[in-house]
Amino acid sequence: MNGIDIKKTLDSGNRVFGCMLSAMGVTRFRPSLAGSTMDFVVIDSEHGSRDRKEIQELCRMLRDINIAPIVRIPIPMSHWVAMALDAGAAGVLVPYCETVEEVRECVATAKYHPLKGEYLTRAITTGEFPSDKTKSYLEARHEDTIVIIGIESEPAYNRLEEILDVGLIDGIFIGPNDMTTSLGIPDEVTNPKYLDVIKNVIKTSESHGVPVMIHQQTLDTSTTAIELGARFVMHSTDAGLMQAAMRRDFAELRAVSGSDNADESLKDTLETV
C-alpha cells in the first residue's frame, strides 16, 4: 500500500497491518519484506541509530515493494518531520507528545511542508494560506502523507481530546512500555489499569474518526489490541519476528532430536522499545 491506500482503508473502517523495523539497516531484506503481506512498516529512528541516507534507502525500497514506509522520528520537533518526508517517507510517527503546541507544530509540517515560519503557523491555526493556489498545491503534495501522534504518558492521555482537536491527525499511537511506566506499572501490558487506558484512547480517538496503533509484541497482546478496537495494527519488530521464527523452528528440531535443552530456545532476549 501507499499512504493514500492506507488512509482509504482506515477511513472505510477496516484495518491495516505492519511491524516496526528496529534492526534492519540494509535493503538486502527486500525479498523477505516483499513476501510479508504487510501494508506498512514503521522505521524506528527514535531508539535506532539511523542516519538520513539509511532512512532514504529503506523508504525507497519499501515503496518499490508497495509497503508504506512510516518513520518514527527521534523527538516531537518539526524539523525531524521535514527530514523524514524529504527522505521519502509516506508518513511520520511523532513519539511521546504531551502538549497541543508540539502536536500542532508537527502536524502542520507533516501536512504543509515546505511552508514554514509565520505562514505555517497561520495555516494550521486559522486555515489561512498565502493563496488558494498554495493551499491546493500543499494538499495535493501531501495527499499521501500520514501523521501519527504518540500518546505515551498519563499527561498526554489526560490531554487526548485537546490533542485530537488539532485536526489533520491520521492515527494515535500508544507505546506500551512508555505508557505502562508512566502509569506506574512498567511493562504490565495485561494490567486492567493499562487496558482501561487503551479502551478509552480507542473510544475517544474513534469518536474523532482517528484509528489507534498500539505497538504490541506478542500475538496474544496484539490480538487483545484488535479485539479492543485498534485498527492500525503494528505487531512486534523485525528482530522480534525473526527471533520468534528461529526460536519456534529450532525448538521443534530440538524436540524431534530429543535434546534435553529444548526449552533454552524459548527464552526471549529482546528489549521492548
Q: Can you characterise this structure?
A:
This protein is α/β, with parallel strands linked by helices and 273 residues long. The chain has a single domain, classed as Phosphoenolpyruvate-binding domains (TIM Barrel, Alpha-Beta Barrel). Helices cover 48% and strands 15% of the residues. It is built from 13 helices and eight strands. The chain has helices at 3-11, 30-34, 52-64, 78-86, 100-112, 117-126, 132-141, 154-158, 160-164, 176-182, 192-207, 219-228, 238-257; strands spanning 16-21, 40-44, 68-72, 91-94, 146-150, 171-174, 212-216, 232-237. It has an eight-stranded parallel β-barrel with strand order 1-2-3-4-5-6-7-8, surrounded by eight helices. Strand 2 (40-44), helix 3 (52-64) and strand 3 form a beta-alpha-beta unit. The radius of gyration is 19 Å and the shape is globular.
Q: What is the CATH domain class?
A: Alpha Beta
Distance between the termini: 25 Å
CATH topology: TIM Barrel
Whole-angstrom Rg: 19 Å
Tally of individual helices: 13
* The CATH homologous superfamily: Phosphoenolpyruvate-binding domains
Low-confidence stretches: none
Helix percent reads 40-55%
Mind summarizing the main beta sheet?
8 strands, parallel, barrel
Number of strands: 8
* Spatial order of the strands forming the largest sheet: 1-2-3-4-5-6-7-8
Proportion of residues in β-strands: 5-15%
Estimate the global geometry from the Cα principal axes: globular
Order of helices and strands: HEHEHEHEHHHEHHEHHEHEH
